[in-house]
Recover the amino acids of this structure.
């Protein structure tokens, strides 16, 4: 009976969202935004103790109390993208714990309530609705993925709830018409432009294929790569597809092999991307492999093991072990205080910076914290100094605080190496 009620509740939420035109539900829309039945709303994952509301609590907006401000996160904590949600959560929690140790923001402690959407759009809708309507959160932060964000953002927009620093570079999140979205990271268009520029200029490679996850995330990366190629009067020599939340990649890889590429841009999460690279090497393919930051760099290196050498990953945050960078040093200290067992990495550093971005917005509002104030003051052209790292907001670049893209390569022992250019002596471009 409980399960049936949960199914009915989830389906009713989805129906209302579709009826209002808030999610893509019609025949002409992105199929990734279509909604299917789900068995249950996921239980909280790693959520802090949620205190009962005081009858005398004062709040300017939902989620804002006299002693705390409550944020919500719907992300993948299980499944093939689970390490991404876990990494983002670790970083956000570390940033919140850091400010809480100093007394909070203007005397208010920060809390984070989480829900596992397993990287599936229908659960993202249900979780987002529950976080807004039941948990009464102030803002959403650290969502993971394009398909889930495509489904959740209309819910947040309709409720006027801030949607902060999603872990995706999708173009639709950079639409100036969106009222609730604040991006931290560079876009996938910027990442794939850097890939194609480095391949063509550093290595002289023009035979470039693209393999991508067949949903809105994969298409966002594919469109970015295709546009970057077209600007150079090129086009992909082959295209391969695979389904979300699977590692069944062989058919798509065989399609890519038909184009005899010298480089392959792979758009996906760490498990299927690792499967693509491993199978390619199994069947004798040896192109340059490149993938975007969403892949989950540390998890990818772990999945590939010794077979990861030479894989290129673009990043949108500084190198997470470079403690000479003040923001990275602050991140290391905060992460160690939060949980000394957690290894530093690109994803949790992005989560930490997302948490710090939220803190900066709250600080700008002072004592009178409202969603409207929070959003408006995170959209002004006034730099944020994040432990020495200056971030500058740009509406023109896609409603985002950073347009940095960094090159990294997996080395001999699975470690990441920062790069300025792609080295010819590693990739043997003269033979390509």
């Amino acid at each position: 009976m409980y399960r049936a009620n949960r199914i009915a509740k989830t389906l009713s939420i989805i129906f209302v969202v579709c009826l209002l035109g808030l999610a893509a539900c019609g025949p002409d829309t992105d199929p990734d935004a279509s909604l299917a039945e789900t068995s249950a709303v996921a239980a909280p994952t790693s959520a802090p103790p949620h205190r009962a509301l005081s009858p005398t609590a004062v709040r300017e907006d939902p989620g804002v109390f006299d002693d705390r401000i409550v944020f919500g996160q719907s992300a993948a904590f299980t499944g093939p993208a689970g390490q991404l949600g876990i990494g983002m959560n670790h970083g956000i929690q570390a940033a919140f714990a850091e400010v809480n140790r100093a007394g909070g923001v203007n005397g208010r402690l920060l809390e984070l309530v989480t829900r596992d959407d397993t990287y599936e759009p229908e659960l993202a809708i249900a979780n987002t609705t529950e976080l807004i309507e039941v948990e009464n959160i102030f803002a959403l932060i650290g969502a993971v993925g394009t398909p889930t964000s495509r489904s959740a953002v209309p819910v947040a927009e309709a409720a006027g709830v801030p949607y902060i620093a999603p872990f995706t570079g999708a173009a639709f999140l950079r639409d100036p018409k969106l009222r609730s979205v604040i991006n931290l990271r560079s876009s996938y268009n910027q990442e794939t432009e850097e890939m194609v520029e480095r391949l063509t200029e550093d290595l002289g490679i023009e035979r470039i294929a693209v393999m991508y996850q067949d949903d809105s995330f994969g298409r966002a990366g594919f469109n970015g790569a295709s546009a970057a190629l077209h600007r150079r009067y090129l086009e992909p020599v082959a295209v391969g597809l695979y389904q979300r939340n699977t590692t069944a990649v062989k058919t798509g890889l065989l399609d890519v092999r038909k184009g005899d590429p010298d480089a392959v841009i792979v758009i996906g999460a760490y498990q299927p991307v690792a499967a693509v690279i491993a199978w390619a090497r199994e069947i004798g393919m040896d192109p340059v492999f490149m993938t975007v930051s969403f892949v989950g760099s540390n998890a990818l290196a772990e999945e590939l093991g010794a077979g990861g050498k030479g894989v290129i990953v673009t990043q949108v945050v500084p190198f997470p072990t470079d403690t000479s960078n003040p923001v990275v040093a602050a991140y290391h200290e905060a992460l160690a205080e939060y949980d000394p067992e957690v290894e530093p990495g690109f994803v949790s550093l992005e989560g930490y910076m997302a948490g710090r971005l939220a803190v900066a917005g709250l600080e700008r509002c002072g004592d009178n914290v409202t969603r409207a104030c929070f959003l408006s003051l995170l959209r002004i052209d006034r730099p944020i100094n994040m432990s020495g790292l200056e971030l500058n907001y740009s509406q023109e670049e896609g409603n985002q605080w950073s347009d940095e893209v960094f090159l990294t390569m997996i080395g001999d022992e699975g470690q990441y190496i920062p790069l300025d250019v792609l080295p010819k002596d590693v990739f043997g471009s003269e033979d390509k």
Remarks:
- The chain has a mean pLDDT of 87.
- DSSP finds 13 helices and 14 strands in the chain.
- The CA atoms of residues 240 and 366 lie 51 Å apart.
- Residues 2-186+326-391 form a domain with the Rossmann fold fold (CATH 3.40.50.2300).
